[in-house]
């Protein structure tokens, strides 16, 4: 069976002190935020369904993977049905392809530095996933 090769989508990454943004930019159109990954969880636990960066690793010379974890808090009206069960936690990987190996290693280093800045004082380990969702 013939398979059509996957078309790479050109995106721009922006790393801030609190998040990593993946932007889609087309001429003549407004910039769209395609992915928003955070360094730390929200202070409002009821609405915390965001993707928290748990790590970053190289995947080849020009490719790198950002692993995230997302804690989804259940609806308070369903607490009786889910008593003593942990909150649902999902992991996801986001793959990115840089223009050069040096650019990929720079992104990996910068993201790791940002994670170290926000590392918990208790020394809690961050978890990682190995699946890839975007190239």
The counted number of beta strands is: 6
Instruction: State the helical fraction.
Output: 10-25%
The number of helical elements comes to 1
| H-E order | EEEEEEH
Mean pLDDT across the residues is 76
Describe the global form: globular
CA distance, first residue to last residue: 22 Å
Largest sheet: 6 strands, mixed
Q: What percent strand?
A: 25-35%
Mind telling me the C-alpha Rg?
Answer: 17 Å
Helix/strand-derived category reads mainly beta
Q: Detail the poorly predicted runs.
A: 73-86, 122-135
| Strand arrangement, major sheet | 1-2-3-4-5-6
Organism: Daedalea quercina L-15889
InterPro entries: PH-like_dom_sf
Protein name: PH domain-containing protein
Please give a structural write-up.
The structure is a single chain. By secondary structure, the chain is mainly beta. The chain has a domain at 49-119. The chain contains 1 helix and 6 strands, in the order ββββββα. It has one helix at residues 101-117; strands at residues 12-15, 19-24, 32-38, 51-58, 63-72, 88-97. This is PH domain-containing protein. InterPro entries: PH-like_dom_sf. It comes from Daedalea quercina L-15889.
